[in-house]
Amino acid sequence: MKSTKASLGFESLLKVIDLSVSFVQYQKGLRQSVLKVISNLDISLGSGEILAVVGSSGSGKSLLAHAILGILPNNAFCSGKILYKDELLTPERQKKIRGSEITLVPQSVNFLDPLMRVSAQVRTAVRQGNAEEAQKKIFSRYDLSEGDGNLFPFQLSGGMARRVLISAAVVNGSKLIIADEPTPGLHPEIVAETLKHLRELADEGCGVMLITHDISTALQVADKIAVFYAGTTVETAFAADFHGQGQTLRHPYTKALWQSLPQNDFRPLPGFQPLPANLSEGCSFAPRCGKMTPKCTGSLPVMRDLRNGRVRCYHAT
Ligand SMILES: Nc1ncnc2c1ncn2[C@@H]1O[C@H](COP(=O)(O)OP(=O)(O)OP(=O)(O)O)[C@@H](O)[C@H]1O
Ligand code: NI
Fold first, then answer.
1. Residue 15 lies inside a defined structural domain of this protein
2. Which domain holds residue 259?
3. Cα separation of 72 and 314, whole Å?
4. How many Å lie between the centroid of ligand 1 and the Cα of residue 276?
5. Which InterPro entries match (predicted)?
6. With contact defined as beta carbons under 8 Å apart, do 237 and 224 qualify?
7. Residues near ligand 1 (Cβ within 6 A)
8. Does ipTM exceed 0.95?
9. What are 89-146's pLDDT values in tens digits?
10. Which residue has its alpha carbon closest to ligand 1 atom 29?
């Protein structure tokens, strides 16, 4: 069941504080430039909680996941802090607990070795104890038979593929699960099953970060929603805040996202999210915002607490 507990009620598992991620890009000769793709990003996730990270393509969702897992490319550098169980998540610690305590549920079976039977792949992921026993146990939990285990990734149906990917991700008893677009273009029944599996893991005490561009998918299971725009969080809200005309939402972008859904006004938001190279000093949403004033283009608003949620907007009340 989804929880309505306030964030403070959950044991803190992950805190991302003022995270920025930049890429060093080499141009002709020895000239180099720096492209900032994530700026001043804050989120927190507790044990037992599902936090959905929602935003359009290019808003920085996957890079956040990669920063937490410590798998950013070599030309990326981060500033800010990532705390896991209240301790700094250093590169050494990331390497040690990645794939066991902290794990990624990838988007597709392309992540798997195409030439290896799926049961064997899950066994190779096991870090401790009897690998065969662990694989059989996790397969039975996710309703995969011995015959299914003998298949190669390309032979899996959509639903089976999702169950193999989640089995591989949680076979080592993860505490923090990051699912990056786990339901791309899937049949609604398979989407529902995948979300149910994530909810079960959270109800057993895991923290789950569900990355999706689709707010409707997020609202089916998440406790909290973090809305991303142009490389930063613009709002964190409880799922219950998404109702009616969106009057309890805080940021104009979140309201616009909500109103653009088919079941609401189906009113699309004109304009585009700016590319990282074109970010201004001020609020990135300002050019599309009906509430824009000169202050908005001067400096980026800080994230502040508002009505049991958080928002990055000068005008939100
Ligand atoms: N290696 C890289 N070098 C330079 N820029 C990058 C690199 N990887 C990602 N970016 C840029 O960072 C921004 C955020 O990318 P990211 O993949 O996190 O977006 P996303 O929100 O996951 O999008 P999607 O929904 O399409 O998966 C994009 O503008 C992207 O072009
Ligand atoms: Ni992505």
1. no
2. 37-59+174-316
3. 32
4. 9
5. AAA+_ATPase, ABC_Ni/Peptide_Import, ABC_transporter-like_ATP-bd, ABC_transporter-like_CS, Oligopep_ABC_C, P-loop_NTPase
6. yes
7. 23, 35, 37, 55, 57-63, 73, 213, 276
8. yes
9. 999 999 999 999 999 998 888 889 999 999 999 999 999 999 999 999 999 999 999 9
10. 58
